[in-house]
Amino acid sequence: MSESVLRLALTVLLVVVLVVLVLLPVGAILGKSLEDQAGSFIGLANFRAYLGSPSLTRSIGNSLLLGLLTTTITISLAFLYAYALSRSCMPFKPLFRGIGLVPILSPSLLPAIALTYLFGNQGLLKDLLGGGSIYGLAGIVAAQVFYSFPHALMILITALALSDARLYEAAEILGASRARMFRTITLPGARFGLISAIFVVFTIAVTDFGAAKVIGGQFNVLSIDIYKQVIGQQNFRMGAVVGVLLLLPALLSFAVDLYVRRRQKSMLGGRAVVLVPEPSRVFDLAMLVAAGLVALFVVVLLGTAIFASLVKFWPYDLSLSLNNYDFAAYDAAGWSSYGNSLAMAAWTAMIGTVCAFGGAYLVEKGPGFVLPRALYRGLAVLPLAVPGLVLGLGYIFFFNSVSNPLNGVYGGLSILVMSTIAHYYTVPHLMAVTALKQINDEIEEAAAALGVPFWRTFVRVTLRICVPTVIDIATYFFLNAMTTIGAVVFLYAPATKLASVAVVEMDDTGDTAAAAAMAVMILLTAAAVKILQTLLTSVVVGRSQAWRRRDLIDKAEHAPVVA
Q1: Is residue 293 domain-shared with residue 337, that is, in the same domain?
Q2: Global confidence as pTM
Q3: Which residues pair with 311 in a beta bridge?
Q4: Residue 39: inside a domain, yes or no?
Q5: Rounded to whole angstroms, how far apart are CA atoms 24 and 398?
């Protein structure tokens, strides 16, 4: 088989895989939403029935309100926090950065559980609410702010880092105040990052299921409606209708973000000077206080969840014990759900990394095959616009059909791996593309001219250069597989129950302490993997990435030539 035929075959195979894992399940949802219980086409009748129910249509308004409140609060706090980290000389920056990113390691149920222990019916601080209740909009917003904060923070830190110091120097010479420089230079320079962060947070808030399930009370949102229709009432057609409605804000966010990325221009030219903040006693102190309050919110919720998992009987017996970690006493699956999560995350990381990095290499390096490469690129970014709940419901319709030859995967661990890879495929694909674009195409061209097969060039050169990125991709898949709840909540079987699903079920049965303990186990596992990633990356960079070090390059350039 020639190299070109092999490249084409592999690219087409990956296109088929993405069609099966993403496009066909989403198409199945659209089809089911237009059918009645007998499978006959009825057009938009299901949508009219849903929109004709005041209690159900209220969920749409509630979801939009939740998204707007969460986005406004999260973006404000994340921008302030990112500004403190990038534009001040406040102390302990690495510590604050780490605290700000920790929530990304936890499932979305963890902050909701912590809030119930602080402000719930038996909460330690419930009196601070003045007779109000944490169950409902306020609780969901608080939990969503915690959960979506690191996603916005990472985007905004990057946006604020790309600034040309010469603009600020010129403004200072012209006598502009700090406030005017902020309005005319900082905000315009970070506008693309702000827009991206806004739509990322809004999508998370509208489509997330975990926080609303735990602390939502009687405040219905679309994500809860789809869960009730499918799990509670077994009304799959109406669930498909809600799934389509839930897909709309995500698609809108995806389209706007894609438009913004295409309009974005380079912020740093070849002559640009990187902005280095100068010490200012008053400003640095103000940024330290602001960042400290946000970090305190994160630490308090994390600390509460960990403490609650160790308490014997909240709030009457606060002595510490590991009884809540005896999961067999609260759930029939016991520790096996945690083991299933580890197995599923490991398989997701291995298979997902091979597909994402290998696929990116096939479409970014090498000549020809314009159509399959374009199809792959489009399909690879599509999962970013599909919420987890919608994808999971699509998997029910598509893979559970007796006419589907892939029906055998339904109910096993493999379908959980497939749905998780599909759900989180876009970001690893973009990470791989970014890394590969930094490698000059002359490497592949020279190898081809010398008759070296592309797979040998890939293994010996490209893969070694991109080892840090490969580790990052594998870590990303693993962490999200450990914390995911959206798609898998519809797809697990008793033998394949995951830790995140066990958290939901134990909270439903009133075993909140055990649910907190399982959520903490997910958090600790994710943190351990993140630390392992850092250590592994440092070792790999030290051993196989020596060519990146400036001192070694200079030494090699000035080394005497031996005849």
Answers
A1: no
A2: 0.85
A3: 320
A4: no
A5: 7
